[in-house]
């Protein structure tokens, strides 16, 4: 787990990354204070910015070489936007991303293009991300050629090696994406990411479009590939169960920010943030005795709108442990907690994590209040703002 002292210093050191210089366990990617705010425009003739969607709103994240970092959270909390911002596929409003010590914002043109080879993405919908007019051979060769990786090698042997790595037969080379099942297509997507020999792969919901029966196979494939090729993964999912078995560390996101981050075993053994506890309590346990007796925390209401996030702790509108004043006004930082047996690597953004863990604070009811639909139809400039969907009374 990283401490501020581990962090890569902010000055750009080189203009390109030498991956071989970064040992396993060293920080490969270091994101600091990342914000992505999308402007909301309004107006028929002249567009004016009338607000922002605070999709990612202040995230520090370090990923070490050779680890799998699982990023989880509800739909719309900003996971994909963060993943894209880390790869410089989304413009950041604020913050910086260092990859192998190099400030990615300092890279331009050809240097940035070369750099992209080291950071690949696997998408949720392989059919949408693979050109339907290209055979698997063409799809795999495209990236390799663009980065000059076919020169002086037996390209066909390399393609067969890639297919073998992802568990597809060599006959797949002449096929088109639509000729495969969903799981096989995702294997093609993974082979394409692997084809340029990247150091980091961001897999955005890599199994959520697949049948449940195939999900485990693809997750196991990612785990095998990591071991075989020493890859580093950021795996994004809305389901804690999906990332559980492959993640070394897990970050839980809520409305544009991390609310908890820990080694996977620690997080699953003792989730500390009320939101993580609620997510975890929704994951079924195979043992029926444990399943029947364990604590369930039901979250009321939907995620509030990221265009109008609640003040203070963003989770306060849904939190069963919310305390007056402080929770509503002061935004909690991700911090090391003072709880016996909890390591410094488990950080939590909750003012009352210690009191909640000790039982000193007990959960209370959170009542939902239906929002007035007329609000949404009003002529006000801020009418597009989705009001926080739940409000606690009393
Ligand atoms: N280009 C964009 N312009 C405006 N708003 C955007 C844009 N991209 C994403 N958003 C908004 O930013 C917020 C975060 O979106 P994002 O896709 O990152 O969430 P997510 O956690 O990946 O959700 P999901 O689990 O559904 O994929 C959402 O409210 C979304 O509508
Ligand atoms: S800071 Fe308050 S509202 Fe936020 S999670 Fe902790 S107890 Fe709940
Ligand atoms: Mg997404």
UniProtKB/TrEMBL annotation:
Q: Which SUPFAM superfamilies match?
A: P-loop containing nucleoside triphosphate hydrolases (SSF52540)
Question: Start and end of every ABC transporter domain?
Answer: 40-280
- Signal sequence segment: none
Q: Where is this region: Disordered?
A: 361-394
Q: Does the keyword Nucleotide-binding apply?
A: yes
Protein name as catalogued: ATP-binding cassette domain-containing protein
A single MF term (Gene Ontology): ATP binding
What does the sequence similarity comment in the record state about its family? Belongs to the ABC transporter superfamily.
């Amino acid at each position: 787990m990283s401490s501020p002292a581990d962090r890569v210093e902010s000055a750009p050191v080189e203009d390109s990354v030498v991956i071989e210089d970064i040992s396993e366990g060293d920080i490969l990617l270091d994101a600091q204070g990342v914000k992505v705010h999308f402007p909301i425009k309004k107006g028929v003739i002249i567009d004016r910015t009338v607000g922002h969607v605070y999709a990612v709103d202040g995230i520090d994240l370090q990923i070490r070489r050779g680890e799998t970092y699982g990023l989880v959270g509800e739909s719309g909390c900003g996971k994909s936007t963060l993943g894209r911002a880390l790869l410089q596929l989304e413009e950041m409003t604020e913050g910086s991303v260092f990859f192998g010590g190099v400030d990615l914002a300092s890279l331009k043109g050809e240097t940035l293009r070369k750099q992209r080879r080291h950071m690949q993405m696997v998408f949720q919908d392989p059919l949408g991300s693979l050109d339907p007019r290209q055979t698997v051979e063409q799809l795999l060769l495209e990236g390799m050629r663009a980065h000059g990786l076919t020169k002086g090698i037996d390209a066909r042997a390399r393609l067969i090696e890639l297919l073998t790595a992802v568990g597809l037969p060599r006959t797949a080379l002449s096929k088109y994406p639509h000729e495969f099942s969903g799981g096989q297509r995702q294997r093609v997507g993974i082979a394409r990411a692997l084809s340029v020999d990247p150091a980091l792969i961001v897999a955005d919901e890599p199994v959520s479009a697949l049948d449940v029966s195939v999900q485990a196979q693809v997750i196991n494939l990612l785990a095998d590939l990591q071991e075989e090729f020493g890859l580093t993964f950021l795996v994004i999912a809305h389901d804690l169960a999906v990332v559980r078995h492959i993640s070394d560390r897990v970050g839980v996101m809520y409305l544009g920010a991390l609310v908890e981050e820990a080694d996977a075993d620690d997080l699953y053994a003792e989730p500390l943030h009320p939101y993580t506890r609620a997510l975890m309590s929704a994951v079924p346990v195979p043992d029926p005795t444990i399943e029947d007796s364990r604590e369930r925390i039901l979250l009321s209401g939907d995620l509030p709108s990221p265009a109008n996030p609640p003040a203070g702790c963003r989770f306060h509108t849904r939190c069963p442990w919310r305390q007056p004043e402080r929770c509503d006004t002061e935004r909690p930082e991700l911090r090391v907690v003072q709880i016996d047996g909890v390591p410094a690597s488990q950080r939590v953004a909750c003012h009352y994590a210690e009191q909640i863990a000790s039982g000193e604070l007990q959960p209370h009811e959170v009542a939902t209040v239906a929002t007035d639909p007329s609000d949404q139809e009003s002529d006000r400039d801020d009418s597009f703002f989705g009001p926080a969907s739940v409000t606690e009374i009393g």
